[in-house]
Amino acid sequence: MSQRLIGAALALCLMGTQAVAQDRMPPISAEKYTEAQKKAAAEFAGGRGYEVRGPFVPLIRSPEVMLRAKAMGDHLRFKSALEPRLSEMIILVTAREWTQQYEWVAHHDIAIKAGLRKEIADAIADGRRPVGMAEDEEAAYDMSIEIQRTKRVSDPTWNRAVAKFGEQGVIDLLGINGYYTFLAMTMNAARTGLPAGTPEPLKRFPD
Q1: Segment 141-176, tens digit of pLDDT
Q2: Cβ 194 vs Cβ 108: under 8 Å
Q3: Which of 14, 42, 160, 202 has the most CB atoms at less than 10 Å from its CB?
Q4: How many Å apart are CA 39 and CA 34, to the nearest integer?
């Protein structure tokens, strides 16, 4: 193959890579918001203390969905029956299962600050079952992995989680999986990117 043909093929590959990475729903400038979007953005910022970002950038295309998602997230992240170390670990599991880079970047350091051991986070990033987990971490991890991968939960895993967290805790655990799966699905479909200059922390699972 001639150098010219090789160069052309390489250029086509690069063009394809760029196309795949292009954000399908980039941020909308505030002056282009509809009235409903302006109201939703103001309510979002008032509650969270920062402007619309991350998964809420595509979600603001449907302002009511965005606000209802925010409300659910406020409970599951800040008021659930699970302590932050566990809820943040579940978010990392969800981000890993969906290879959701933004979700991982947004929550990795929070998880570590909440008390999750870095070795556990590293194992989750690699797709490995962490060793040396505490009993509550094992119960939360096993239920999260089972529901994410098999779409079901076995009796031993269910019974262990209920014994450890109670029925409300189990529903909150499943809620965190479901909520952050919803955000991951949204960002993966919309191709929501990381902040400029931030490398992707997660390797993609083989097909």
Answers
A1: 999 999 999 999 999 999 999 999 999 999 999 999
A2: no
A3: 202
A4: 9
| CATH topology assigned to domain 82-190 | AhpD-like (1.20.1290)
Reduced to 3 states, what is the DSSP secondary structure of residue 62? coil
Counting beta carbons within 10 angstroms of the beta carbon of residue 53, is it exposed (0 to 12), middle (13 to 18) or buried (19 or more)? middle
Contacts of 92 (CB under 8 A, 6+ apart): 104, 107, 108, 111, 116, 121, 124, 125
Residue 167: both structure tokens together: 């029925």
- The residues spanned by each domain of the chain are 35-79, 82-190
Query: What's the token pair of residue 84?
Result: 């932050």
Here the tokens at position 6 are 């090789």
| Residues 39, 36: Cα–Cα separation, whole Å | 5
Token pair 């009235």 is found at: 35
Q: Residue 129, SS3? A: coil
Please give the model's pTM, rounded to 2 decimal places.
0.88
